[in-house]
Amino acid sequence: MTIKMKVWVLLLVLSSVLCVSADGLYEMNSVSGCSDTDGEDVLILDNEVVWYADFNKHTGVDSLPAFADHPHWQEGMYEEAVANQQICRQNLKMARSAMKDFPKERDAPDSVEIYTIVNVEIGVQNTLICHVTGFYPAPVNVTWNKNTKKVVEGTSITVPLSNKDGTFSQTSKLDFVPKGGDVYVCIVEHVSLTAPLTKIYEVDDVEPILGPAIFCGVGLTVGVLGVAAGIYLFIRGRK
C-alpha cells in the first residue's frame, strides 16, 4: 500500500503551522481532500478538530466547546473550502489521466475498539465510544444496536481523520444509561468489507454498592445495644 496509489481515489492537501503562545507550542494542521463522492476540509489544533466544512448542510461547523474563544478568522472559511473542493477535483481528474493503469486501493479497518468515556455506574448516563482506524478510502458507516434493535437517538460520528500512513480513523459515539444485562453492538461497514465488522459491549449486571449504608446501620445498631447493656448493668449493680 503506497500513498502514490491512493491518489487514484483521493487527493489530500495538508498544511501545517506551529503556533507559539505564552503557554507553549501548538501545532495547527489544515486538511483538504476530495474523492468521487465526498469531500473534506478540516482544521486541526493539537490533534483536535476545531472546525470542519459540512458539505451536506452547506455550512462550516465550529466544534470548539462553548466556553472556548471562537476566533473571527472562521468567517469565509466555508466558501474557501468549497473553492478548494473544485480545485481538488480538477487535480483528481488530472491524476486519473496520469495514473489510469493503477487499480483502486481499498484497505479494510485494522482496528475497531469499543469503550466508555467514564467508569460505568448502573443508572448513570454515560457515553459509548466506537473507534475505527486503518481503513481506506474514507468514510466508514457506523450503526448501533441495543439488544438486537437499532439505535439512532443519541448517536453521532466524527469526520474522517487522516493517519500518517495514508489510512483514516473515525469515531462514533452513543449516549446511553447503563442497565444490567443490556448488550450494545457497534456495526462498521466499509467498501472493502464483504460483511460488517462488529464489536460488542455488555453491561455487567451489578447491584448498586450499599457498603456505606450497611456500615452506618451496623454502627448504629451496635451503639444502641451498647447503651442498653450499660443501663442494664448500672441498674443491676445498684440492686
TrEMBL record:
GO biological process terms held by the UniProt record: adaptive immune response; antigen processing and presentation of peptide or polysaccharide antigen via MHC class II
CC annotations in GO: MHC class II protein complex
Sorted UniProt keywords: Adaptive immunity, Disulfide bond, Glycoprotein, Immunity, Immunoglobulin domain, Membrane, MHC II, Signal, Transmembrane, Transmembrane helix
Membrane topology according to the record: Single-pass type I membrane protein
Domain of life of the organism encoding this protein: Eukaryota
Pfam families (alphabetical): C1-set, MHC_II_alpha
Record bears the keyword Disulfide bond: yes
SMART domains tied to this protein: IGc1, MHC_II_alpha
Leader sequence residues: 1-22
Location of the protein in the cell: Membrane
Transmembrane region(s): 209-235
Residue stretches making up the Ig-like domain: 109-198
The family this protein is said to belong to: Belongs to the MHC class II family.
Stated name of the protein: Ig-like domain-containing protein
